[in-house]
Amino acid sequence: MNKMSSEWGIRMQYNIHYDIAAMVLTAVILIHYYHRKAIKQPQSYVFTRLMWLSFFTDFLDIVTVVIDEYRLSPLLVNTVNVVYLVFFNIAPFLYYMYLLTLSKRRELWSRKDKLVLYGPVLCSVVLICTSPFTKWIFYYNRTEGYCHGNGFFLLYIAAIIYMIGTVVITLLHRSRMTVWQKTSVYMYLLASAAGILLQIFISDILLLQFATSLSLLVLYMSLENPNEDDDKLLGIYNRRGFEKVVKSAIEVEERFHLLVVTVRNYLIVRETAGVSFCQVTMMRAMEHLKAEVKPCLLFSISEGRFAVMVDKCRRADEIAGILQREFAQPVVNGDMNIQMKISILQIDYPEEVSSIEDVMDYIDYAAVYEAESNDEKVFHSSGEILRKMRHENRIQQAMQQALDKGTFQVYYQPIYSTKERRYNSAEALIRLIDDELGFISPDEFIPMAEKNGLILKIGEFVFRTVCEMMAREKIWEKGIEYIEINLSIVQCMQEDICEMLYGVMDEYDIPYSCINLEVTETVIAKDILWNIMERMTVGGVTFALDDYGTGYSNLTNVLKYPFHIVKLDKSVVWYAMENERAMCALRYTVEMMQKLNKHIVAEGVETREQLDILEELGCRYLQGYYFSKPVPEQEFLEKII
Ligand code: C2E
Ligand code: CA
Ligand code: CA
Fold first, then answer.
1. 365-377 tens-digit pLDDT
2. d(CA 433, ligand 1 centre) in Å
3. Residue 462: CB within 6 Å of ligand 1?
């Protein structure tokens, strides 16, 4: 009841319309809340109590007015009023508790936190409950009806303590709260303060409960709005909801298993069968799964990727089995049978992850690893993978930055001709030096760049830089016949690769014969080299077969393709130095290449002894640290003079 009086201790008139409105409003919020099934977080527990409390307070308020109106028995009036007042005074306490829960874990609450939290409410409750005897808070008799006692203001003081506490917490944790959260807190405080003032100064309208309900609505919309956590299309929670749930579980240190499912061929299926096919298939799958994995929660993470949080009453491997079965059968689309291929990553807390950041990192980077996986297996997260993924991610960033800022560098490693006793060519090698990570080896970043496609830009950059240098320095006049440039398999797979190469060479107007392109046998295996060789060699560009002696080195490749150079891999050279049979094989290889009229470049020459042996074997071209490491352009130009 809106206990308003112009003077405490004087009987009041009540207007219950606002109470009814407040009750309806709270009921609507409650229905909406339970219908939408908001994600449970530690503060949700307090929020639901706050809503129910508000609802019953409204109800009791009306009841007190009615029974007061009809002057019912003092025992009944006293009891109802005690319950009403207790409820009414618990609200600011719960609100404060709500913010405290938001700001820190319950286990971390200090003694002072608990004293401020429970002290005032306990005092209020004791005062209210003893009031029928002491008449301190309120009193009732048949002539005057219900009246506030002299101690009623103490209840306001308790409420004000909580309001101050609320302000303090909000200010202390403002950096961690969203603008919306802060706004709703201030609105609640304003509404409550206005409510208290109204109650004190306006005696015939009772607004306080209505103001409280309104601020609950604001709180609901901004702090607890479950719509924001839904993936409307799939009818499951979204990534935001996922983060909330995982964060809460970690906050209360509750163990969990997550199964992150990635449809590996999602993009291909989307391209071939269309977006709506993908959506309908995923919707149906989610519909099934929701029933089968109950009560586990499902979350959509991104397109073609969702997660299941395994409930305590189910086992992770059992759920993984259900997921695999769900996607085991192809889906019919017109006259096509489409198979969605999934891989599952299992993340265990606290064994493998310790924070929400760890979990999200796994989910964001795991795709790379999953691409290499197969359907049967469930992948388990591990700290090792996480570190590796983070490191890779840093390198990806470093590459992107180097491209954006133009800080990639091209170094040159001169190649020595034993016959002419001077350098006759050089290999261009890319260098990446990151401010944070320092020198990053191309052996590390080139495979990554090949995976994400950055190699196309990197390759073009190297080619352009070399051509520009050659044109500027006219290096063919300095005895350098050609520069060897590495061509990645990914570059070779581009249809317009020859146009790019010719385009750049023409732009700098350099003789085509100054360029030698190094490819490995992986390019031959893909059967894409013929076309490129045919088109490039007409112009005069030559080719080298790189890393000969590793992998599947196949002599027929050397016979079949018009390679100008065969580069013996450094491992072959080094092995021959310590093993007689390997030396024998090397001798024959060199002999044979000579007969086939190929230039042989031996890589990895580090000592005088190696040089002598290789020269004796008949290797005419040598590359290695003994002569020079790969060096920046200026140093290279000084070396060849
Ligand atoms: P690669 O094509 O086999 O290049 C030769 C590698 O051997 C270079 O390593 C070079 O520094 C190193 N090397 C040369 N002589 C010696 C020696 O005497 N001792 C030792 N220990 N090493 C020697 P680098 O520069 O680290 O490059 C590694 C690989 O990265 C290259 O192997 C190549 O596959 C790739 N790469 C480098 N630059 C490019 C590029 O511009 N484009 C593409 N697609 N790949 C590149
Ligand atoms: Ca090479
Ligand atoms: Ca090589």
1. 765 555 555 555 6
2. 15
3. yes
